[in-house]
Amino acid sequence: MKLERACTRRNFISQSTAVGACALAASQFSVAAAKKASPIKVGLVGCGGRGTGACRQALQADPGARLVAMADMFSDRLEGSLERLHAIPAINDRIEVPQKKQFVGFDAFDDLLASGVDVVLLATPPHFRPAHLEKAVAAGVHVFAEKPVAVDSPGIRSVLASCQLAKKKKLSVVSGLCLRYSNGFQELVRRLHDGAIGELHTLQANDYRGPIWFKERQPGWTDMHYQMRNWYYYTWLSGDFNVEQHVHFLDLCSWAKGAYPIKAIGMGGRHVRTDEKYGNIFDHHSVVYEYADRARLYSNTRQMKGCKSNMSAEIQGSAGRARLTERRNGVTIDAKGKDLWVYRGENNDVYQTEHDELFASIRSGKPINNGDYMAKSTLLAIMGRMATYTGQEVTWDMALNSKEILGPEKYQWGPAPAVSIAMPGLTKFI
Predict the structure, then answer these.
(1) Is 414 left (phi over 0), alpha (psi -120 to 50) or beta?
(2) Domain at 9-179+351-369: CATH architecture
(3) Where in the chain is the domain with CATH 3.40.50.720?
(4) Which CATH number is 180-346+378-401's, of 3.90.1300.10, 3.90.226.10, 3.30.360.10, 2.60.40.10?
(5) Both ends of the chain: CA-CA distance in Å?
(6) Which positions ≥6 away from 151 have C-beta within 8 Å?
(7) What stretch(es) of the chain map to CATH 3.30.360.10?
(8) 409 Cβ contact list (under 8 Å, min separation 6)
(9) Separation between Cα atoms, residue 360 and residue 366, nearest integer Å
């Protein structure tokens, strides 16, 4: 199965124009008109912090949006999310989720979809994204899909197929790769594509941060309960942290480059996060990606307590360099022979903007489909993990066509997938 790597400047401009058109539609769509229009019925799938935030942003994006159903693996998470959403005055009167539409367990998504929704917000652990996306598109439902969209290559192939079907069915699929919706990043990438620093030859994506949450085991939990509660630490659920989190800056670099690499080699392991409670993910990854034109992307990630944080991208070109961070005045271009350019335009809430665009596209009947880049950028991250886990060089086509399936054959409370920690040089590419 071949996958086109490059995106042309024409494609980029057309995508940007479509986003601008949706923004214009949103500005012209008055509150009064939205209230008179048919409600947009929203279903939230995955009621953790990100899911709850996405739901708030979805309801704020369109005054006709109504939360009508919720689904999660655990009742306490669903109830907590519902309580937090009810506490927001601006959206409280548009939360209409009776007990019969609060779905819990492994079949919760199917039950939510059958209950009747127009849009689903997919914010479960990434392992479940391909199956949920496939079912949502088959049912004719618009989708917001949090990043990443898969943990393995069969999942990526499923997502690509689902998003192609979504195009045919004229459904919107908006990705949680929210940096693409940043005003500052959009302006910088436009300039790079117009040649502001010449040919791009060296890119660097940094993701150095500290540790995150962990849930202590509770009485009555089976192994599956434990892994699902601590999903972040299990590769079959999260994809490892270079996939689950670092995908943002990998996506940003390939957006700027306008292409995806042809191969990768790297190293990684568990240096600090070695306790059994941390499942089987690594605590550091370092990957060198190579593009068809010999340009390279250096990807470095680390999650360790007490170390310096750095979340940024740096891009070197034949006529200068660019830097991108989420800090104010952190988007710059230093071109040879020119004054330093710093983005000083309006800063937007990227999490809100992605939902503004989604709902504006639904109202206007002009669907957005982010499926191509959300799948390719997730594969880029998975490709890096394959290289660090095996210690081998992995090509793009190897990664895309891998037959490795992560996760159990059947979902049930009780035993969980065996915890196997990758050993570079010993772990085989499948």
Answers:
(1) left
(2) 3-Layer(aba) Sandwich (3.40)
(3) 9-179+351-369
(4) 3.30.360.10
(5) 16
(6) 126, 127, 235, 236, 237, 238, 239, 243, 382, 406, 407
(7) 180-346+378-401
(8) none
(9) 8
Confirm if 407 and 218 have CB atoms less than 8 A apart. Answer: no
Rg (the chain; Cα; Å): 21
Q: Which residues neighbour 363 within 8 Å (Cβ) at sequence distance 6 or greater?
A: 25, 26, 29, 34, 37, 62
Tens-level pLDDT at each residue, the chain (430 residues): 333 333 333 343 334 434 444 444 444 444 455 456 589 999 999 999 999 999 999 999 999 999 999 999 999 999 999 999 999 999 999 999 999 999 999 999 999 999 999 999 999 999 999 999 999 999 999 999 999 999 999 999 999 999 999 999 999 999 999 999 999 999 999 999 999 999 999 999 999 999 999 999 999 999 999 999 999 999 999 999 999 999 999 999 999 999 999 999 999 999 999 999 999 999 999 999 999 999 999 999 999 999 999 999 999 999 999 999 988 888 999 999 999 999 999 999 999 999 999 999 999 999 999 999 999 999 999 999 999 999 999 999 999 999 999 999 999 999 999 999 999 999 999 9
User: In terms of DSSP bridges, do strands 310-317 and 320-324 run parallel, antiparallel, or are they unpaired?
Assistant: antiparallel
**Residues comprising the chain, all counted:** 430
Nearest to 119 by CA among 132, 104, 100: 132
> Distance (Å, rounded) from C-alpha 84 to C-alpha 82?
5
Neighbours of 32 (CB within 10 A): 9
| Dist CA 90 CA 59 (whole Å) | 9
Q: What is the pTM (predicted TM-score) of this model?
A: 0.91
Strands (E), 182-262: 200-209
